[in-house]
Here is the input.
Amino acid sequence: MNHHATDLHTLVAAYALGALDGSERRDFDVHLRTCEACRQEAAEFEATAARLAAAVSQSPPAAAKAQVMAAIDGVRQLAPRLPAPGPAPALRGILRRRAVPLALAASVAAAALGGVAVWQTQSGQELKQQARQAQEQLDAISAVLAAPDARTVHGKAANGALTTVVSSDQQNEAVFTAAGLPSPGAGKTYQLWLDHDGTMRPAGLIDHDGTVILTGDPADAGAVGLTLEPAGGSPQPTTTPLLLMTLPA
Here is the structure.
């Protein structure tokens, strides 16, 4: 591993997401034995990637397997793929410094687009609209995750849901992810808020586990809030916040 000791910390995301080669991973294992900060950060990156991927995943329809098996005989076989040359040594450090946002964006892309093969077995205008909406969501989320100034914070709501916010000043956007969010119940919804010096401003709705772009301007917000509100949302919180997560400066 051709890095100074001060550079080792920059490889923690690549390590957590399996982006180091065999020898580099073994060397970084040695580093982790004496670096509590990197051990904790690696665990957080793994949890964040898993939550983001799970939040935008889509289950295939029950008939997908039968449709694929019926059509497989008519699919032309592709020539074997040859491995592409590895990146030049000079580029490897650059790629690894970008490993945090790019790897998270890749995890979202893999999950959100995992249903493309299934979609190809279906047809209809509604399906095309769903595909466009999914692509637009993926593009917006990926832009935040891939931003060079992306920052991540984790939290736990009072109802047990695990939450993550990734924000970018450059994009002036923030992404909220919830996992393990209980059903809000009939006539209710979860509402997100941006706390601007004590003033709570609506930032979108979320009814179940998922990933959403917060609406509003997060630039001057100090925290993200989550409350249970009547269906359709409220202009101001009507219940005690389930979560008030401070954003990084």
